[in-house]
Every structure is written in structure tokens, then in C-alpha cells.
């Protein structure tokens, strides 16, 4: 009896083909030869992972201009069972496109994904001071909407190269307000297997304060500072159950297998009523983490051995 071929794994991404998320997924070696499933929003992508339709989902989590992507942060905080297993960076810039024959003078309404629109606002306001904006589900969707009958928009903010796939004309090139803009993407899965420690790693968590007493935020930050753990990102998001209640999205330099990071997470767990561990994974830039000698792994293990000897009555 012949063996059935193994099913081809599926990865979800904010589509259609050509989006920055699509470009990020192209950096994943395991995704080569796999099935790619285009979805319309972050919630759908993560639902694919939770239900098993996909083995992983590529989602945008942070932009160097706009900061954290709130929809992603809120989804990771409220959907259980997810882990970040990889990080990828995509340089971001945009073009303004229109149907053939349309000129800048014809443009009254621009279709654009809200994040892309925010990154091009300066150029658009200088070039088209009276334009209106229609939000789109993705950068490519903004462009393809121009080809639909009765489209209310005359132009769209889209990724470079869009004209290779669709019959559109470029009205403005490199229209992003920051030429060095970069978007950070993460690959999310249900895997409980931690990526191996590389020395150039990042750990992501979400934590809540126990109450709103004075100094609580400082107490939380001290869990990291006193152990020599640097935070590369900290952002607050409303919990939603009452005014003034926030959770904090935190990225730490290091891996949970690093003694200083593990000890900091233990301290955080003792302090916070709710800690969500999102994962430890290699940094996209591969930058090695510099650790002060007093926070090296051996310092923490020596301290534990010292205390263990005291508790067991061994000679010091």
C-alpha cells in the first residue's frame, strides 16, 4: 500500500500577494514550498493558527515611525495559546498609483491602509491639500480597489512594484515621510518548542499592574533593571474593563534561557496578576546582546549554589 504524501503546511498573511506582510513571509525558509493563505486582518490570521488551518501567521507588530500596531498587540493579549517564533524586518516605502489616464489634478480621494496613510500624510497634504481618505484593508487592496467599477477613490497609496502586478500608473514615487521606515513582523504559531538561544535574541511578554497605587510602574520596571535586562519596547494598551486600566507590551533583550531574563520573569510573575509569555526568538538584525559581567549566567548560578549550600548546611 502506497504512503499518502504529507500534507503541505499553510501560512497565513495579510494579503493579497505583494503586501509588506507577503514580503516578510518570503523571508521564512520553512514557508518556501508551503501554501500561503491570504487573509484580510490580523484576527483572521491568528484564528487560522488557533484552529489549525495554518501552522503560522505573519503579522505586523511594530513600525519605526508609528510605533506598535495596536490591533496586533490587543489580539496577542486576548487570544490564548499563541507564541512568537520568529522576527522579520521589511523596509517600507510607498508610491501613489492611479488608473491609466488619471493625473494628480484629478485626485480628490485617496485609498490607503491607515498605517500607510499615516506614514505618507505629510507628502499627501503637501501634494493634495484637499484630498479625502478611504481606509483599505491592506496596501495592495487599496490599489486594486481603484480597478473596481464605481470606485470612489482616484488614487491609492501602495507598495513599490504594484504596477508589476496590476494595470496602474505611478503618480508619485517614494512618498513616505521617512525614507528609513521599517516595519517589524513576527511569525506566530502554537508551537511550545522554544527557538534555540543564539545570543542575539528577544523575549516578548505582556503584563498588568496589580493596582494603580503610586510607584507600581516603577516596581515593574525594577524587575528588569535590577537584573540588567534591557527593554527594547514598552507600550501600554487599555485592558478595556475600566478607565485607567492598562496592560504593558514589553520586549526584552535576551532569551528566557538566559539566567538574567529567567530571573526577571520570575520576579515579574510574582509582581503582576497576569503575565503572558509570548516567546523568545532570534532578533531579525542578529545583533548580539551585550551583557555586563555582573549579570552573566554564571553570577546567577553561583548565587543559587551559595544559597543552596546555606539551606542544606553545607560548608561555605
Briefly summarize what is shown:
The protein has 316 residues and is α/β, with parallel strands linked by helices. The protein has helices at 20-25, 42-51, 70-78, 114-127, 139-144, 216-225, 259-271, 297-312, and strands at residues 10-14, 35-39, 56-63, 67-68, 83-91, 95-98, 109-112, 132-135, 155-158, 169-172, 182-189, 201-208, 231-238, 246-253, 275-282.
The CATH superfamily of the largest domain is identified as ACT domain
Number of strands: 15
- What is the number of helical segments per DSSP (H or I, 4+ residues)? 8
Radius of gyration: 23 Å
**CATH class division of the largest domain:** Alpha Beta
Please name the defining characteristics of this protein.
five-stranded mixed beta sheet, 27% helix, lyase, EC 4.2.1.51, D-Maltodextrin-Binding Protein, domain 2, alpha/beta, ACT_dom, 28% strand, 316 residues, Alpha-Beta Plaits, six-stranded mixed beta sheet
What does this structure look like?
There is one protein chain. By secondary structure, the chain is of the alpha/beta class. It folds into three domains: 9-91 and 181-193, D-Maltodextrin-Binding Protein, domain 2, CATH 3.40.190.10; 95-172, Periplasmic binding protein-like II (D-Maltodextrin-Binding Protein, domain 2), CATH 3.40.190; 194-316, Alpha-Beta Plaits (2-Layer Sandwich). Helix content is 27%, strand content 28%. The protein has eight helices and 15 strands. It has helices spanning 20-25, 42-51, 70-78, 114-127, 139-144, 216-225, 259-271, 297-312, and strands at 10-14, 35-39, 56-63, 67-68, 83-91, 95-98, 109-112, 132-135, 155-158, 169-172, 182-189, 201-208, 231-238, 246-253, 275-282. The strands form three sheets. Strands 1, 2, 3, 4, 5 and 11 form a six-stranded mixed β-sheet that branches. It has a five-stranded mixed β-sheet with strand order 8-7-9-6-10. The longest helix is centred in the C-terminal third of the chain and has 16 residues, at 297-312. The chain is elongated and about 85 Å long. It starts with 9 loop residues before the first strand and ends with a helix. The mean pLDDT is 93.
